[in-house]
Write a structure and sequence with these properties.
Elements (H helix, E strand, L loop, with lengths): L1 E2 L8 E7 L2 E6 H13 L7 H28 L3 E8 L2 E7 L4 H31 L2 H4 L1 H21 L7 H14 L1 H26 L2 H29 L2 E6 L6 E3 L4 E2 L6 E2 L1 H4 L12 E3 L6 E3 H4 L16
Parallel strand pairs: 1-5, 3-4
Antiparallel strand pairs: 2-3, 4-5, 6-7, 8-9, 10-11
Helix pairs in contact: 1-2, 2-3, 2-5, 3-5, 3-6, 6-7, 7-8
Bound molecules: zinc ion (ZN) (3 copies).
Length: 316
């Protein structure tokens, strides 16, 4: 899985940091790990093997996430954090806003699992050949479990359900043809529909983990639908000549592409003079759609003939 929003930052601890990549574990992971390991005691001759299997599975998850992070950096994006949580791992990646860069950052994760298929299946073959199931039954069970988990991880991540890798890959492929906003809308609406089906299935089967996962799919798809509406508006918006972002100096988009923080109405702040026409709330700060920086409304305004340094910024 790969994320663009800085979620999961709270409640996690750093495991290690390698080449500027902060690898963290969320507190919920520890609790679920404890329950999972203790509930499956007896599968091996010692619970230490259960723990080793659990940690190794997350080792595969970590390699998958490193695939996303390194590919994102390769195409010039920003990626500096991986958080492990009970549903797997989340790499916080920000590729440059081009479909090709997004596609490579997404595909590189499952590609790690593809590479691991011959490795893990090879170990199972060695195990069969050397008769480990009789000679060393714990080792035989362990290598078989890793091969199965790696294969399930590969297939599952490629399901075209946003925000799973497959759903995001589908979005990026559509992006090449119909633009970022519309592709995100199609992928997230599909994610929402499939997530709804998944939650009904999970409830009927009383599979609680699947319920949690379906809930996550629904939540992220719903947020993605909101984001896609903004993107579609921005893509059709004209650029203003009288306002630029003070941080990245890109021109401000024209039209009703800003949201009132109080009543959530879509407004054109530059037309309404930094006031919401619906609830009369003053809009003091604007967040740039392009760079995400927040700046005071007055700092966005370009004065026709004077140079920008002559204008005091941040004061109305
Ligand atoms: Zn992934
Ligand atoms: Zn308002
Ligand atoms: Zn900006």
């Amino acid at each position: 899985m790969s994320e663009r929003a800085p979620a999961f930052a709270n409640g996690s601890w750093r495991l290690f940091c390698v080449r500027g990549i902060d690898v963290r574990v969320h507190w919920t992971w520890l609790i679920v790990a404890y329950y999972d390991i203790s509930s499956r005691a007896g599968e091996y001759s010692s619970i230490v093997w259960n723990a080793a299997e659990y940690v190794s599975v997350f080792g595969i998850v970590l390699l998958h996430e490193f695939g996303h992070v390194l590919a994102c950096r390769q195409v010039g994006g920003k990626a500096d954090r991986i958080v492990l949580w009970p549903l797997g791992g989340v790499a916080l990646v920000q590729p440059p806003p081009r479909p090709g860069a997004f596609l490579w950052s997404l595909v590189a994760g499952p590609l790690v699992n593809v590479v691991l298929v011959p490795v893990t299946v090879g170990l199972v073959a060695v195990s069969q050949f050397a008769d480990w199931s009789n000679v060393a039954p714990n080792v035989a069970r362990f290598v078989f479990a890793l091969a199965v988990v790696n294969f399930i991880m590969l297939v599952f991540n490629l399901l075209p359900i946003y925000p799973l890798d497959g759903g995001q890959i589908l979005q990026t492929l559509l992006w090449f043809f119909i633009g970022r906003g519309r592709s995100l809308m199609i992928a997230t609406v599909l994610g929402f529909v499939l997530g709804s089906g998944l939650i009904i299935f999970a409830l009927a089967m009383q599979e609680w983990w699947l319920c949690v996962l379906a809930g996550f799919v629904l939540f992220r798809s719903f947020r993605g639908i909101q984001d896609s509406r903004v993107l579609v508006r921005l893509e059709s918006a004209l650029q203003r000549t009288d306002a630029v972002c003070p941080a990245c100096h890109r021109p401000a988009p024209g039209g009703e592409v800003w949201r009132c923080g109080f009543c959530r109405e879509w407004i054109d702040v530059f037309k309404t003079g930094a006031k919401c026409p619906c609830c009369n709330t003053n809009i003091d700060n604007l967040i740039c759609h392009a760079c995400g920086q927040r700046a005071p409304f007055s700092a966005w305004l370009v004065q026709a003939e004077s140079d920008p340094s002559a204008r005091p910024s941040g004061t109305p």
